[in-house]
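hiii so um. not sure if this is the right channel but i have a protein structure encoded as tokens and i wanna go backwards to a sequence. like what aa goes where. can anyone help
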């Protein structure tokens, strides 16, 4: 991933109503959350790892929330 350099032209990899993912000519991947405009820049490997974590969370979202014995994160 590039340091603090300005990025060049972007190629859109994917886009929907929630997110836009582009790749810069330097190889950095930009993930923009369209709801709040936050963009995260990362390497392709970091995106793959982030996706694995998000996918695991999505797979568990419809499970009932336990009333005890779970980790609470604030």
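sure thing!! here u go:
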């Amino acid at each position: 991933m590039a340091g603090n350099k300005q990025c060049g032209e972007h190629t859109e990899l994917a886009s929907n109503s929630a997110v836009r993912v582009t790749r810069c000519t330097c190889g950095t991947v930009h993930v923009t959350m369209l709801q709040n405009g936050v963009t995260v820049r990362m390497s392709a490997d970091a995106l793959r790892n982030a996706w694995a974590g998000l996918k695991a969370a999505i797979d568990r979202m419809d499970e009932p929330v336990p009333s005890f014995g779970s980790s609470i994160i604030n």
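oh and The chain has a mean pLDDT of 87.
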